[in-house]
Amino acid sequence: MLDASNTPRKLVEVSGLKMYFPIHAGVLRRKVGDVKAVDNVSFHIFEGETLGLVGESGCGKSTCGRAILRLYEVTDGIVKIDGKEIAKADREALRKMRPTMQMVFQDPQASLNPRMTVASIIGEPLDEHTKLSKKEKLERIYELMDQVGLNRAFANRYPHEFSGGQRQRIGIARALALNPKFIVCDEPIAALDVSIQAQVVNLLEELQERLGLTYLFISHDLSMVRHIADRVAVMYLGQMAELAPREALYARPKHPYTEALLSAVPDPDPTLESERERIILKGDVPSPANPPKGCNFCTRCPKVMEICHSVEPTFEEVAPGHYVACHLYQSNSQNAGATGASEARKEHIQQGEEA
Ligand SMILES: Nc1ncnc2c1ncn2[C@@H]1O[C@H](COP(=O)(O)OP(=O)(O)O)[C@@H](O)[C@H]1O
Ligand SMILES: [Mg+2]
């Protein structure tokens, strides 16, 4: 989707997004702290693209996706979808924006009401947001069932009568009912049998092409994201570690965390696979209620430097479209000069060049 100047349009713009969950304790249920599930995250998604969002379980991917769609009251930050601010929009404004943005959930079993028929599940958003007649509504429901490859004859059946893959198709049809532009797919295939995962991914890709959809595709499966995403964002402990076009990220990861994550993914090329060296990170992921000072990855980073324990790196564009939050790449001379990071950085870059 290009505009007149041939630059893709940003459909989703996220800036300084924070989503903290309060922690209460004691008999008085006093607030004693926050789980910083998403902590100062900024990125954008171009119209018509798929941005993959990866990272270990608990790093804040789902919270990020939900916060963007305002399924939570966000702690701070700006989210614009199609030019409209949503993070702080009032109820009525939000209601008007709802059709533009939808979500496909991980577990179709849990997200579909077991007491509703397929037709009523898919038709529910139409009841809430349109004034279609009964007949028009049924036509639209059939059309949606066709689009996702569900047999119209099953419109009056209940979710439990379907397989996992078919249930996910019901969830997708429902998400499409109001002609959204942007869909957050939160691990949409993680709960499905491997044999049907590809079918659902293919369906999502087909629909994207046909309907010009924009996806935030959340997954912990880096091989799957490599297949489906145009650009990939890597999250660690509530923050963005790296974001880059897919090829650059998989071929030349910059952040030590991304390097470690990718080192665990088997390479389809047998020669490369035989050379693959697994980077095992030491220690556990710290608690998002009490993240480390400085860089949040400093407690586990194989390339940690002194500065990393005290100064938080900024999320910077270090090559065209390639963003990384790491002191090895920071342009800020004040940071780099402070504790000899620039020396370490030179060394690292030289090593990189020799390799
Ligand atoms: N509603 C909630 N209340 C309190 N903490 C939450 C809530 N939802 C998620 N969290 C916490 O926020 C962090 C990020 O969770 P989540 O976004 O689900 O991660 P992911 O999707 O990457 O596995 C975790 O530590 C999780 O326990
Ligand atoms: Mg999740």
From TrEMBL:
It is a peripheral membrane protein. This is ABC transporter ATP-binding protein. PANTHER family: D,D-DIPEPTIDE TRANSPORT ATP-BINDING PROTEIN DDPF-RELATED, TRANSPORT ATP-BINDING PROTEIN. CDD domains: ABC_NikE_OppD_transporters. It comes from the Bacteria. Belongs to the ABC transporter superfamily. The lineage of its organism: Bacteria, Pseudomonadati, Pseudomonadota, Alphaproteobacteria, Rhodobacterales. Keywords: ATP-binding, Nucleotide-binding, Transport. The keyword Nucleotide-binding applies. Residues 343-355 have a biased composition (Basic and acidic residues). Residues 23-262 form the ABC transporter domain. Residues 335-355 are annotated as: Disordered. InterPro entries: AAA+_ATPase (IPR003593), ABC_transp_ATP-bind (IPR050319), ABC_transporter-like_ATP-bd (IPR003439), ABC_transporter-like_CS (IPR017871), Oligopep_ABC_C (IPR013563), P-loop_NTPase (IPR027417). It is found in: Cell inner membrane. GO terms for molecular function: ATP binding.
